[in-house]
Amino acid sequence: MMRRSLTAGFFFAVLFVAPLHAQIEEAKPLVFAFDVSITLSQKAAAWLKAHRESIVVSADYTGAPKPDAEGRANQIGTIDLGVENVEVIGAAGLVRVTGTKVDGRRLDWIKGPVMLNVNLFSGRHANGDNVLACDFFDGKLSSAVKKTPELRCSLIAEQVEMKHRH
After folding, report:
1. Please, what's the b/e burial string for 20-36 (b: 16 or more CB within 10 A of its CB; e: otherwise)?
2. In the chain, where do the E strands start and end?
3. What global pTM score does this model have?
4. Which of 18, 53, 105, 158 could anchor a disulfide with 154, C-beta 3.0 to 4.6 Å?
5. Cα 152 to chain center, whole Å?
6. Helix (H, G, I), strand (E, B), or coil: what is residue 100?
7. 118: alpha, beta or left, given left = phi > 0 and alpha = psi -120 to 50?
8. What pLDDT, in 10s, does the model give residues 32-87?
């Protein structure tokens, strides 16, 4: 009798708990907001201040398509969820990206985590070209939410090596 109860309990766990666990792992985020910490080289900070130039934080949200949504994928094979650009004064500091540009209806088209690509560039008001070379973030949205990406920028002319953060 004890063996029958253990066997029944095992099948209950496999049939009901395992799918629940899979749903928890696949849960889509409710919050798409995150912060970015920007640091600037001395030359970049001075140039931005002297030219009253801004910095644009560009956040691109994507996801891998479910098999039945592959026809909705972009040219690189991902589902576009939204892009949010936040323009700030050209100075070092913390920038909040709200995530309000994410199209929540498209979450049903993706499998796996929401992915995030964050790039920084100058606002191009003082100069028609971007003058900044910056680190970038490319990884899971959940990683950026848990730990603020720290992205540093220098002037392109400084030829400082930039890094991929994830």
Report:
1. eeeeeeeeebeebbbeb
2. 34-40, 54-65, 79-89, 93-97, 110-122, 132-134, 136-140, 150-155, 164-165
3. 0.79
4. 158
5. 16
6. coil
7. beta
8. 999 999 999 999 999 999 999 999 999 999 999 999 999 999 999 999 999 999 99
